[in-house]
Amino acid sequence: TTHFREHLDKLFAQGIGMLDIALTEAFNLLSDFNKTGRGSECSQAIMLVTDGAVNTYDAIFEKFNWPERKVRIFPYLIGRESAFADNLKWMACANKGYFTQISTLADVQENVMEYLHVLSRPKVIDQEHDTVWTEAYIDSTLEDGQGPVLMTTVAMPVFSTKNETRNRGILLGVVGTDVPVSELLKTIPKYK
Predict the structure, then answer these.
(1) pLDDT in tens, 13-37
(2) Angle CA 89–95–99, to nearest 5
């Protein structure tokens, strides 16, 4: 996000959006990141925010995303104009995504997070509750008398378990807590 903030002030809206260049760059960025081995590659998405699409750009999806469709496309059409909605709907459907039109500021909060529900749906249905541990870090706001405390954070998703909502994959939120590494070390048997 820092990268986007740094360059946002330099952007001016004019002419037509070159979505082919933007999509190509997005796929290349994901590919480069995948080569680092740091990502899981299990949930990848491109969020395309635009005021229109003159094409379906199927040649780009054919080159980078088909037939596996590992990257899901979530197009957001900004404004009341719906002339380009069909192209964006096609992109979403052809790439396991979800199309959203945002006509007013009131629509933003309600609709932008829809991608989370779509991505989390398989995990809810399969009742997967992945636990994620961060790398250890120093919390300089805490002291234990011997200096700053080494911490880790554990987090997991919280899904709706109601039978009537289970097939819709409702992600309620994320729960997490910080854990001092010293507390983890206390749980290890002394002989280990």
Answers:
(1) 677 778 999 999 999 999 998 888 8
(2) 30
- The amino acid occupying position 64 is F
Look-up of token digits 């997991």: 156
Is 90 exceeded by the pLDDT of residue 89? yes
User: What distance in Å separates the CA atoms of residue 95 and residue 105, rounded to the nearest whole number?
Assistant: 27
CA pair distance 73, 48, nearest whole angstrom: 7
pTM (two decimals): 0.69
Q: Which residue has the tokens 């309600």?
A: 110
Neighbours of 114 (CB within 10 A): 15
CA distance 158 to 170: 9
Closest CA to 100 of 76, 73, 70: 76
Q: Compute the C-alpha angle 137/141/143, nearest 5°.
A: 90
SS3 breakdown of the chain: % helix, strand, coil, rounded to 5? 40, 25, 35
Give the burial class of 121: count Cβ atoms within 10 A of its Cβ; 0-12 exposed, 13-18 middle, 19 or more buried.
middle
Query: Nearest 5 degrees, angle CA 114-CA 118-CA 119?
Result: 115
Residue ranges in the chain assigned as alpha helix (H): 2-8, 19-36, 58-64, 85-94, 105-112, 114-125, 163-166, 181-186
Amino acid letter, 46: I
